[in-house]
TrEMBL record:
Keywords: Signal. This is DUF3826 domain-containing protein. The lineage of its organism: Bacteria, Pseudomonadati, Bacteroidota, Bacteroidia, Bacteroidales. InterPro entries: DUF3826 (IPR024284). Residues 1-19 form the signal peptide. It comes from Dysgonomonas macrotermitis.
């Protein structure tokens, strides 16, 4: 009987610890969401709280998907010795993760659209990705002032695509990593368009320095 009571007591202690950790995690995510939502100009308190809840739920979903993928990869590495089979299993897990992230993002954006305008949704996307899209876009426009309008449109389109991926990334490093990948694509594109990126960057640095600033 004492043994059974000990097991039951241990179970409730574990559940209590889990509940406390979950509450703390939710509090952190709510604070993160609130920083984004407060920039949207929402005056309706019910709508404000709904949008925060939508954001918190998305953060939790992303955490579960990305953590689940990491755990599955770790388990696969522990069970599969053959390199080719491990690569095949890893690719399958990656494909599954991407599908889950895509579905979660579609549901998330659908929920946001019930309360927000397209402009506000873009603000949410920028908030989730630290505003890197516009910072990067403006940097390219400043670095290469001779960019043509169609080239600017292409750069912006790629950065929007990068933001869509970055929204679902599991960490700040991974979010910036997505923009890094697309910056490589942009640099290659500009080189093919005839721009010397190294010279453009050097000239930009000189302009900024002459104006008393730094990059």
């Amino acid at each position: 009987m004492k043994s059974l009571l000990s097991i039951i007591a241990g179970f409730f202690i574990c559940m209590s610890a889990f509940s406390q950790n979950d509450a703390e995690y939710t509090k952190v995510l709510t604070g993160r969401a609130d920083k984004i939502v407060k920039t949207l100009g929402i005056t309706d308190s019910e709508k404000y709280n709904r949008v925060i809840e939508t954001l918190v739920n998305q953060y939790k979903a992303l955490g579960e998907i990305n953590d689940g993928y990491d755990n599955n990869i770790k388990a696969a590495k522990g069970k599969i010795a053959d390199k080719a089979k491990l690569e095949e299993a890893s690719q399958a897990l990656s494909n599954e993760k991407m599908t889950q992230l895509y579905n979660a993002q579609c549901a998330f954006l659908g929920n946001l659209s019930a309360d927000l305008t397209n402009e506000q949704i873009d603000q949410v996307k920028d908030g989730m990705t630290y505003g890197v899209l516009m910072v990067t876009y403006k940097s390219y426009c400043d670095m290469v002032p001779s960019l043509k309008d169609f080239e600017k449109r292409q750069l912006y389109a790629w950065l929007v695509e990068a933001r869509e991926h970055a929204m679902s990334a599991s960490s700040s490093k991974d979010k910036h990593g997505w923009f890094g990948k697309y910056k490589g694509r942009i640099n290659n594109y500009l080189s093919k368009q005839g721009y010397d990126i190294q010279k453009e960057r050097a000239a930009w640095e000189e302009r900024v320095k002459a104006a008393g600033g730094t990059l």
